[in-house]
Amino acid sequence: MRFVYTIELSLEWVNSPLFASDRQDYKFHSEVRKYLDAEQNDELDGYLEEIVSALREVAEKPESGISKKKSRVIQFSKSDAARAALLITQTVTVGTTRPKSQAYMLSAAIVSIYSSFETFAGTLLETLYFRRPKAISGNPSISLNEIVNLSDRRSIIKRIASRQAESELQEPITAWLEKLTRHSGISLPRKRWDWHDPWRHICALSAIRNCVVHSGGRVDRKLVDRMSEIGQKSAVKSEGDLIELSEEDIRRGIESCLDAATRLCIGLSVNQTTSEPWSIDSHVESTTESKVLHWIATLQWDLIDRKQYGIARMIGSCRPPLSDEFVRDVDVATWSSLALEGIDYSLDGLEALQWNHRASHLHKYALLNRCDELNGAIVQAIAEGHISKIDLLFAPEYILIRKCLGGRLEDLRQGWEINAQQEGAGAV
After folding, report:
1. What's the pLDDT tens digit per position in 138-175?
2. What is the pLDDT of residues 386-402, one digit of tens each?
3. Kindly report the CA angle at 54 between 51 and 58, in degrees rounded to 5?
4. What is the per-residue burial (b if ≥16 Cβ within 10 Å, else e) of 319-342?
5. Could you tell me the pTM of the whole model?
6. Strand partners, 71
């Protein structure tokens, strides 16, 4: 089995200070390399050389070139070296650009946040209509010319689904949001001013975004009317005045969109994955919900790694209840975000749950703050190959475990380095 890691590169990004030659990524690289043997070091360096080659190729293209984006697929084998390469590239490719104008930055953030949610909603609608064509209202048509150019029935359905989703997103947000929530099994009040967050706040974001884009951020009649429709007229200034945004508005916007996106994603997976005779797929995978929850957990760990504990916790709060007391990745990520944020949470019953997912007992000891037991379990898990040193030391999934180990983690690191040096000397 091989992992596929796709890098989307832009000329502007490669030429930015983030990719300057004096960037100090070497320390992280060398730290990771300590825990790989010689053969794996060569494999890791091979991966990184491919990535650097891709970056240079884009950087050397003339700015006037037709394409300013390059996509290269790098094949990773399933090994510690592959995991190390992923960790290193993720570290290298994360950067932040701060515009000089705070007002511009906040306005741009609002536009970006809402646009991301709208794109996500469109993808959900398209996926739903592709999987369940009869969910499309009316009787959409497709031209004979398109049918001739499309290869099979699936391609035709996909084209219709894409077109339908795009068409519905042209409607007011209240209209297509009602459709999405209904398909997700979420009931909204009939009167839109009775909607609760996050739905009402996302509608407000849409109105503010439109005002920023089309009216330069000055309050206009459309904004007033749209905010009145959802019971938010009091939050709007007088017509002609500039909208004033704060960092709190950005934080709340992110939380609302992620909250809604999580609810929709889980809701659709639960409500729309039963096999139907008219479904495009004869057998819809029964594991769809678990896959969605695993995706959410991965997002949570990424947020936790960036110390966005509140958002990670909020996303996890949208998960369905435990099934048969079986602990899932999303549950571990949610409880870990609570612990790292310093919020008290109930430890009652954690011991009795079924902790039989990957490395689950390690997370259980960390959550229960049983650090002595955790230390012994870590040593055993690494010796038996259940987890790698690379993941323990660097992967976001083990942040709470590293915190619980405290000074013991440094003792483990030093022990591994000594052993590696001794083995190297013996090989010579």
Report:
1. 677 666 666 666 667 777 777 777 788 888 888 888 88
2. 888 888 888 899 999 99
3. 145
4. beeeeeeebbbbbbbbbbbbbbee
5. 0.65
6. 8
Give the Cα separation of 413 and 392 in Å (integer). 10
Cα–Cα distance measured from residue 271 to residue 117, given in angstroms and rounded to the nearest whole number: 21
Q: How many CA atoms lie within 13 A of 99 on its CB side?
A: 9
Residue 72, strand partner residues: 7
- Give yes or no for a contact between 133 and 160, defined as CB atoms under 8 angstroms apart: yes
Beta bridge partners of 218: 242
Q: Are 9 and 70 in contact (CB under 8 A)?
A: yes
Q: In angstroms, rounded to a whole number, what is the distance separating the alpha carbons of residues 301 and 283?
A: 31
Determine how many CB atoms are found less than 10 A away from the CB of residue 309: 19
CB 195 within 8 A of CB 203: yes
Q: Is 75 helix (H, G, I), strand (E, B) or coil?
A: strand
SS3 172: coil
